[in-house]
UniProtKB/TrEMBL annotation:
Regions crossing the membrane: 12-33, 39-59, 71-89, 95-120, 127-144, 156-174, 186-207, 219-241, 248-268, 274-291
Protein name listed in UniProt: DMT family transporter
Keywords: Membrane, Transmembrane, Transmembrane helix
Organism, as annotated: Halovivax cerinus
EamA domain residues: 14-142, 157-291
Amino acid sequence: MSLSTDGRVTPVTALAVAVLAGSMSAILVRWSAAPSSVAAFYRVLFTTVLVAPIAVHFHREEFGRLSRRDLAFAALAGIALAVHFASWFESLNYTSVAASVTLVQTQPVFVAIGAGFLLGERITRRTVGGIAVAIGGAAIMSFGDAGQAPLADATALGNALAMVGAITLAGYVLAGRSIRQRVSLFPYVTVVYAACSLTLFALVGAQGHEYVAYPPVEWLLFVTMAVVPGILGHTLINWTLEHVESVVVSVAWLGEPIGSTVLALALLAEVPDAVTLTGGAVVLVGIYVTSRGRDAGT
């Protein structure tokens, strides 16, 4: 694993920053009073606005070399990412931060399943074991956090929405995995974020929400979502994949549920119950085993 690329920033440092920034995402969503789809739309739109100039300036020629197939799969990845954001943001209205963030991080489990069935990759015994453990932990979590969520009687709905977010995030990863082997980071994320923004724009309209009638504090939160979990989290994690083994990134990203839970305790006074914490720990173990099983190939 390389620890330095230019003497100024190391991939390990970047990975730590990305995990910490990603841990803020759920907190920012909770602080926002805007509809979930609106918050998701502006997070992605402002992220697109920030990365597109860099992509055009430094990779202008690469855009012209993108094949129709790559564009189609990048657009598909963007649509999947839009559904991920919409469902996950909405889940935070119904379940606790600890449950929502942990369940949405089960995406490596669904990536492993999808890679096996759609890409013909061999699913190892360790991977199967990890998947089983993660699913068991998710089942345990379904019984937790009664009375802790914003709408406690709908906790099961929130957990289900978080799982939808995990499945669609896995779809985003699978759709874009082969493209990233041929296309640089910024051109790729620009196309993906643009498709994601258009999808969320349509969803906001379909739901009948206002596009611009929000107070200044909401616009500040939208921009912060784009900069912190968007650029410093999501985009930076994509950069680290070029310099750090994927299994290291996958395991390190398990720190996000822990970070989000601690931040929710400190900033939202949200204390997860013992059942949720137990189930969450089991889920994280399952994700870890799944990631290691895919990496080991045994």
